[in-house]
Design a protein that fits this description.
Layout lengths: L33 H5 L12 E12 L2 E12 L3 E5 L6 H8 L7 E6 L2 E2 L5 H7 L1 E3 L12 H6 L10 H5 L3 H20 L15 H13 L5 E5 L7 H16 L3 E5 L3 H7 L2 E6 L2 E6 L1 H6 L1 H8 L11
Parallel strand pairs: 3-8, 3-9, 6-7, 7-8
Antiparallel strand pairs: 1-2, 1-4, 4-5, 9-10
Helix pairs in contact: 6-7
The structure holds adenosine-5'-triphosphate.
Adenosine-5'-triphosphate binds next to strand 2 and helix 2.
GO molecular function: ATP binding; ATP hydrolysis activity; L-isoleucine transmembrane transporter activity; L-phenylalanine transmembrane transporter activity; L-valine transmembrane transporter activity
Protein name: Amino acid/amide ABC transporter ATP-binding protein 1 (HAAT family)
Keywords: ATP-binding, Nucleotide-binding, Transport
């Protein structure tokens, strides 16, 4: 498989299982119902509000710099949790420590009681954590549909001989992957661009495509790292609606985002970091009134969408 890239992207997205056969992916005209195919194997838990992921005293150090300093919080099942803080507060470091990119020097991360620390990135994906990145990472020459199909779970692969001889089982699994890929594109609102190379897609579509690819792994927790970066106000509104729809469909969402209107409008709860430490953990309306948060972050005059202070 060729790992084509565009200028914005590294060669191979770290979370993608690159062994899936995606040679010729065409769009079928008899699509099944979305709900049947988006996540056929995902268990949708109704136990909303219980901790899904727990960070306990999580600490990450870079040489002499403590980027994350004994941070403790829960991500509860079924919520949209915002993770905010000024530049350099440790938000992305927190994502990276949770998803196996950085090794914490202290503390634990558990998901449904099992530790995520020390697991390889693919094992963390299999455990049910998916993420998007601040800088979009897609296979630029591949179509939108192909980008989602490569994100699909490994259990839909047949053996190498099966793929070579295109056995009935292989063809069935390939068809299932395409159906699921199309359903996911439809879910995020870009099915009309399924056959377009991802590098040719408008920026907002590429961001949605990243979300579709993350959802293809059937995560329990979806981590979005600044998904609204570069969006205009109308696109931000649409993104808020998409994030709510994802939550309402049974996923738990962790959201890093600088846009305060979006964060306050879409999250159920917010954790605030400053200099690597947690300074607040509450519902949006309380966060907005929290003196420590105002001093650290919200007190800084925000720029309007047109760039004026
Ligand atoms: N790989 C690294 N090596 C050294 N220092 C790092 C590394 N990654 C992050 N840092 C430092 O750790 C601190 C936290 O950075 P991080 O990117 O997590 O902050 P952030 O809250 O996500 O910021 P932003 O909102 O600007 O993305 C910063 O001081 C940053 O310079």
């Amino acid at each position: 498989m060729t790992d084509s890239t565009n200028d914005q992207t590294p060669p191979v997205p770290a979370d993608v299982d690159a062994d899936v056969d995606v040679d010729v992916v065409t769009v079928p005209d008899d699509l099944p119902d979305i709900a049947e195919v988006v996540a056929p194997d995902r268990e949708i838990s109704v136990a909303v509000g219980e901790p899904l992921v727990r960070l306990d005293e999580l600490t990450v150090e870079f040489g002499g710099l403590t980027a994350l300093d004994h941070v403790t919080f829960d991500i509860r099942r079924g919520e949209i949790l915002g993770l905010i803080g000024p530049n350099g507060a440790g938000k992305t470091t927190c994502f990276n420590a949770m998803t196996g990119v950085y090794k914490p020097s202290h503390g634990t991360v558990t998901m449904e009681g099992a530790s995520l620390l020390g697991k390889k990135k693919h094992a963390i994906t299999r455990a049910g954590v998916a993420r998007t990145f601040q800088n979009i990472r897609l296979f630029g020459e591949m179509t939108a549909l192909e980008n989602v199909v490569v994100g699909l779970d490994a259990r839909h692969r047949t053996s190498v001989p099966g793929a070579i001889f295109r056995t009935p089982r292989h063809l069935r699994e390939e068809r299932e992957s395409i159906d699921r890929g199309m359903a996911l594109l439809e879910f995020v609102g870009i099915a009309d661009k399924a056959t377009a190379p991802s590098r040719s897609l408008p920026y907002g579509y590429q961001r949605r495509l990243e979300i579709a690819r993350a959802l293809a792994t059937e995560p329990k927790l979806l981590c979005l790292d600044e998904p609204a970066a570069g969006f205009n106000p109308a696109e931000k509104q649409e993104l808020m609606q998409l994030i709510r729809t994802i939550r309402d469909d049974g996923y738990t969402v962790l959201l890093i985002e600088h846009d305060m209107k979006l964060v306050m409008g879409v999250t159920d709860r917010i954790v605030v970091l400053e200099f690597g430490r947690k300074i607040a953990d509450d519902v949006p309306v309380k966060i907005q009134q929290d003196p420590a948060v105002i001093a650290a972050y919200l007190g800084v005059e925000e720029e309007d969408d047109d760039g004026a202070a």
